[in-house]
Structures are given as structure tokens and as C-alpha cells.
Amino acid sequence: MTDSSVLDSTTSNILPMRSAADQPLVRNPGVSFDASWFDALRVNLSAVERRVATLGARRSVKKDAQAAWLLKAVTCIDLTTLSGDDTAGRVRRLCAKARQPVRADLLDALGIDSGTPSASPSLHTGAVCVYHRFVATAVDALAGSGIPVAAVSTGFPAGLIPHEFKLNEIAASVADGAEEIDIVVTREHVLTGNWQALYDEVRDFRKACGNAHLKAILATGDIQTLSNIARASMVCMMAGADFIKTSTGKEGVNATLAVSLVMVRAIRDYHERTGWRVGFKPAGGVSTAKSVLNYLILMKEELGRRWLEPDLFRIGASSLLADIERQLEHHASGRYSAFHRHPLA
User: Fold this and answer.
1) What UniProt keywords apply to this chain's record, in alphabetical order (predicted)?
2) CB 3.0-4.6 Å disulfide test: which of 82, 181, 203, 262 passes with 239?
3) What is the pTM of this model?
4) 80 strand-pairing partners
């Protein structure tokens, strides 16, 4: 299979959201809880490992095609800062980078309209993700850009505050202008098999979000088994999640191709059952251009071209963008640049 049969092979054709325009996304409203959808579900670990081993081996994405894939990845990044020493200044710098994620001279060399950061550049990240404290700061810094602000919520990252506090935190972030809410599920519900409690919790979160989109973080490194991950994915989608997300980035093990395969196949199953499209977000550990290509291939092969748009695919990352920009400079100039020349913001 050639590069162009997987994704458009020229950089000039990678950015327009033709598929999104042709197939407008309608939000997943959720369905009634039905344990029969997942009770008998089991995941074969060996089969999963064999499948993900093929992702980087059966595809050779080089030159213009690779640059095109990496530019597509940029549009799907949730540019993130979730550190204890975050400041308003750091968040504003992050938002400036989200507006102009790749240097204008590199975009010009690649034949991409760079636009201007103050107007709406043709290339920008999918969102900026911050703690609730900085939602209003980010909304102000991104005004007029069309870039949404995502807020981590519900006692992120552990999710062990009282339920009513979780709902209040969601409401506060929405009131401050967050258009996306990344919630953490209660891991205990998954580990004890209390699927009704998980459904009820996520359903409450969905209602509290209102028009803001809900991304349900499963914390896959904490819930132990691929079968648990598959079941939790299905329950969250049944409860109305707009996205399912691997990790907080704070677990010992975060996004992996194996857990991602299990989650995207749950998305495929849900879509086949209901007709509703749900998005996917790997987060934590996706830090190199090489690794992100495997996630793009995974989405295209398992779910199709429609799932390569930012309304259905996001990558939670901070350092990834610098490595992508470095690889794009190599493509444009033939020379590798030092990593420190491509700061996050």
C-alpha cells in the first residue's frame, strides 16, 4: 500500500477538514445502561500485542507524506501544562504557541499558508489543556483564535474528592469559558466491577458539562487489565462521553499502543451498535514524532479517515510539538536542529 492510500501524501492536502465538512459530527447522547454489551467481553493480550507490532512495520511514511502526517498531528494536539508550578505567564506562552505551533518560515518552506498569530492562522493546535485555575487566563489569551480551552476536572488526577465537588468544579470551568472538560473516572468502580456506578457518575458529569464536550479519562495504567479497559470504555460511551482518553499523564504507565487499540475497537463497536461517533485521546508518553505516526496509523486503519480530524482525535502532549517542529525543519532544510531551538513556548 502506498503512502497516499493511507493519507494524502502532499502537505498542501493534509490540512483542510474535507471529511469533517462532508460528515458533520453529532454529539454522542449516550444510551441506557445495558451490561449485556460488555459482560462477556474478554481481550486476548497476545493478539493485541501482535496487532500493534504491525503498526510501525507495515507502513513506510517518508518525505512529503511524513511531513503531511506530522502537520495533521499538530492540529490534533491538546497542548497541555499541568504542573504544580504553572503560572499565568506560562499559560499565556502556551496559548501563543498553540496559535502558531510551527514557525512561519518552516510553513512557508513546506508550502503551507502560515497566516498570522493575531488573525486566525491556518495551522493551530486542537486545544489548550490547563487546570481550572487557569481556564479564564487561557480563554482570554486565545480570544478570536477558534482554539478551545480544555480543563481537567473532577479532582484531577486521582478523582477522589466528593461527587458534588466534582460537579461544582465542572460547572465552574464551564462558567469560565472551558469548551471541553477532561474528567477522571473513579477507578474503584472499575476495579470492583461496579459498572452501574461508573455509568451514573459519567452521566452526571455529562449533564454538568452542558454544551462543553466531555472527555472521560480511564487512567488505564491504574485499572490493571485490558478487559477492564474495554468495559470501562464502553460504559463511558454509553453514559454520553464525547471522547475516551487513556491517561492523566500522572500514572506510572500512561498511553500505550496496546491500550489504545483496545479503546479504539470499543469505539468501533459502539459506533456499529449506535451510529454515534466517539473520539479518542491518548495522553502521557506520546512525546516523539515517530511515536505519534503510529497513533495516526492506528486511527486510520482501525476507525477510518474520519477519525483523523481534531473533533474525533486528540493527543495530550507537551514536549511532542517541539520534536515535530524539529522533524519538519529537517524535512525543509535537510539538517537536524538541536532540540533546545524548538521550545514549547
Assistant:
1) Lyase, Schiff base
2) 203
3) 0.90
4) 129
Q: Which are the catalytic amino acids?
A: 182, 245, 281
CA 145 to CA 121: how far, in whole Å? 8
Structural element, H or E, at residue 226: helix 226-238
**How far is 238 from 296, CA to CA, in rounded Å?**
25
Note the pLDDT tens digit of each residue in 178-228: 999 999 999 999 999 999 999 999 999 999 999 999 999 999 999 989 999
Q: 86-90, 109-113, 168-172, 323-327 — which is least confidently predicted?
A: 109-113
Cell numbers 502537520 correspond to 71
Q: Within 10 Å of residue 23's Cβ, how many Cβ atoms?
A: 12
* DSSP category for residue 318: S
Q: In 100-220, where does DSSP find H-type helix?
A: 104-109, 135-141, 163-175, 187-191, 195-209
Contact yes or no for 118/104 (Cβ under 8 A): no
Checking DSSP bridges between strand 77-80 and strand 315-317, what pairing results, if any?
Answer: parallel
Cα–Cα distance, 27 to 322 (Å, whole number): 32
d(CA 137, CA 92): 7
What is the rounded distance in angstroms from the CA atom of residue 148 to the CA atom of residue 337?
Answer: 31
